C-alpha cells in the first residue's frame, strides 16, 4: 500500500559572544519534535559564524534524529515486534 507524507523541519540559529545555539523543530502534521545543539568558538580561533551555524545545526539535527529513532523503537516494541539490532560504528569511528 503506497504511503506518502510531508514533514517539515525548521532550524533556528542564534549566535552570541562566540556561541551558537540551534533548535531543529520537526512538524509531522500530527506532532512536533525538537532537537537542540550548540557550538562554541574555541579561544584563539577566528570567529566565523557560518562554521558555528554548521556545527550547532548538525548537532540539533543529530539530536532530532536520535529522538525519532527512540520513538520508532518504542513504537515497534509497543506492537510486539523485535527491535532492529544495534550495529557497531562504521569503520570503527563513532558518529
CATH superfamily: Rv1738
Count up the domains.
1
Named at the architecture level, the CATH assignment is 2-Layer Sandwich
Largest sheet at a glance?
Answer: 3 strands, antiparallel
Shape: elongated
What does this structure look like?
The protein is an alpha+beta fold and 95 residues long. It has a single domain (8-81), classed as 2-Layer Sandwich (Double Stranded RNA Binding Domain), CATH 3.30.160. It is 32% helix and 28% strand. The protein contains one helix and three strands, in the order βββα. The chain has one helix at 49-78; strands at residues 8-16, 19-27, 32-40. A three-stranded antiparallel sheet has the order 1-2-3. A hairpin with a 4-residue loop joins strand 2 and strand 3 (32-40). The model has no long low-confidence stretch (mean pLDDT 89).
Features:
95 residues; 28% strand; 32% helix; 1 helix; alpha+beta; Double Stranded RNA Binding Domain; Rv2632c-like_sf; Rv2632c-like; DUF1876 domain-containing protein; three-stranded antiparallel beta sheet
